[in-house]
Amino acid sequence: MPTVSLVVLAAGQGSRMQSDRPKVLHEVAHAPLLHHALNAGATLEPARIVVVVGHGGDRVERSARLWGEDVRIARQAEQKGTAHAVAQARDALEGAGGDVVVLYGDTPFITPATLARMREARETGAGIVVLGFEAADPGRYGRLVVDGDRLERIVEFKDATEAERAITLCNSGVMMGDAATLFRLIGKVSDDNAGGEFYLTDVPALAAAEGLSSHVVTCDEAETLGINTRAELAGAEAAWQGRARAQALADGVTMHDPSTVHLAHDTVLGRDVTLEPNVVFGPGVTVESGAVIRAFSHLEGCHVSDGCVVGPYARLRPGAELDRAVKVGNFVEIKNAQVHEGAKVNHLSYVGDAEVGARANLGAGTITCNYDGVFKHRTTIGADAFVGSNTMLVAPVRVGAEALTASGSVVTEDVPDGALAVARAKQQNKDGLARRLMAKLRAAKARRTN
Ligand code: UD1
Ligand code: CA
Fold first, then answer.
1. Tens digit of pLDDT for each residue in 339-362?
2. What is the 383 CA–ligand 2 centroid distance (Å)?
C-alpha cells in the first residue's frame, strides 16, 4: 500500500454561521470541527497532514498546531474553489508521494471505517475514489453520475440538468487518489462553470478522459453531515451526543436519563460509573469505575477515582484530582486540588490550589482563600484533619495532620499537627440582655402605633 497524506480544506468563510469565528473552529463536544476532521483522517496514519487555511487563517493555523505540532499549513489567499484549495497543498506535499485524501474541515463525522474502505478501493485498483451517499434530500449537493460501479463524473447542482438533479447519489466531498495523478488532474480543472470556481469535482471526468477509472464508496448520510449554520451545528452536537451516550451505555455506564447528560469528545468513563440526570462534562475528564456523579454536576479537566461520590450540584474544575472514595457534596467547587483517599468536602465549599489529606473532613462553608488579587497561593490540609464549618483558610497556609480548626475561624497561620486552632472573636454572654432589649423595642413600636 502506498503511504497516504491528508489534506483538510478549511479556508472557507462560513458566512451563514453569522460569526466572527472561522467556521471550522466552532465546536462539537468541546472540540473544533477541524479537530474532528483531523482525528478521523489521522486514523489512516498519514505521512503528512496539510490544513488549507484562508479566512481567519492565523486562528485556524493556531488551532491546527494545537492539534498536532507537525501539521503543515497551506494558505489559500482567495477562495477560488475546492480544486484551487487542494492545489495550495501541493508544495507542502512535495516529495511525499503516495496517496492523498481530501477531507473538509467543516465535516466532522466521517468515520475511520469509511476511510479504511476508501483505502481498500484504492488497493483494488480504483484510480480516484469518491465518497458518496444516498441523500434523503439531495438539495444542492453535487450529484454522482455512475455507470455500474464506475463514477463517470460529478456534476454540481448549479450546473446540473433536471435529469441529473433527479440523482440521489451525492458527493460528500471526500476524495482519494494518487498524489501525482490528483495534482496533474487538478492542473487541468477550469473555472468555466456556473459557480465560476475551480471544482475538485471535475477530477473524475478528467480522469476518465485519461482512461483512469473512478469509483464510489458509499457511507451513511449522517457521516457526511457538513456544518453551515448554527442550527446545523446544534444538530451535529445532538447527533454526536446521541452516539456518545449510546456508546457509554454499551460500555457499562448507568445513566438515569441519558438525554440530559452532556459528554465531551474526550470524556473517559469507567465501567459501572453512574451518572444521574443533568450532568455536564467539559473537556479532559476521567471518571473511574464505580464512581457516582449525582445530578446537576459540572466537571471539566478533572479526575475522579473509583468509589467517589460527587454532587448533586458539584463543580469540579481543571486540576481537581479525587483519589479513591472521596466525597464532594452539594455546592462545592474544587479547582487545582488533590483530594486524597476518603476525604470529605460535603457542603458549600471552595477548595482551590490545595491539597487535602486522606480522610480529612472539611466542614460546611470551608473556603480556601487562594487569591490575593495578584497571586494564587496554596493551602495544605493534612491527613485526618477536621476543618470546622465556615473556616476561612487564608493561603499560603497549612493545617497539620489530625489538626482541628474551630468553626468560623479565619486561619492565617499554619496549624501544627494535632493542634486545635481557634481564630475568631471570643463569645460573651450577657445575662438577660436579649429579653430586656426586645421588651424595649416592642414598647417603642407600641408607642408609635398608638
Ligand atoms: C462541495 C462539493 C459538492 C459536495 C459538497 C458536500 C465542490 C465543487 N462541490 O460543495 O459536490 O456535494 O461539497 O458538502 O467541491 N473550501 C476551501 N477553499 C475554497 C472553497 C472551499 O477551503 O476555495 C472548503 C470550504 O471551507 C469547505 C469545503 O472546502 O470546508 C467545501 O466547500 P463548499 O464551498 O462548502 O462546497 P459546497 O458548495 O458545499
Ligand atoms: Ca458546504
1. 999 999 999 999 999 999 999 999
2. 58
Q: What is the pTM of this model?
A: 0.93
Separation CA 397–CA 377 (nearest Å): 8
Give me ligand 1 centre to Cα 400, in Å: 63
pLDDT digit string, tens, across residues 124-150? 989 999 999 999 999 999 999 999 889
- Measured distance CA(37)–CA(24) in Å, rounded: 9
In this structure, which residue's CA is closest to atom 36 in ligand 1?
82
User: Yes or no: is domain 254-421 CATH 3.30.470.10?
Assistant: no
C-alpha closest to that of 8 among 41, 45, 31? 41
Atom of ligand 1 nearest to the CA of 142: 11
What is the distance between the alpha carbons of residues 309 and 339, in angstroms, rounded to a whole number? 13
Cβ atoms of 361 and 352 closer than 8 Å: no
CATH class of 4-224: alpha beta
pLDDT in tens, 280-334: 999 999 999 999 999 999 999 999 999 999 999 999 999 999 999 999 999 999 9
Q: Residue 114: CB partners within 8 Å, gap ≥ 6?
A: 131, 217, 219, 223
What is the predicted pLDDT for the residue at 13?
Answer: 86
| DSSP letter for each residue of 113-156 | HHHHHHHHHHHTT-SEEEEEEE-SS-TTPPEEEEETTEEEEEE-
| Interval 152-172 mean pLDDT | 97
Strands 143-147 and 150-155: antiparallel
Q: What is the pLDDT of residues 215-227, one digit of tens each?
A: 999 999 999 999 9
Task: Read off the amino acid at residue 45.
Answer: E
Domain with CATH 3.90.550.10 in the chain: 4-224
Q: Alpha carbon of 68 to those of 63, 64, 119, 414: distances in Å?
A: 9, 6, 23, 45
What is the set of active-site residues?
A: 347
Q: Residue length, the chain? A: 450
Distance of CA 450 to the CA centre of its chain: 69
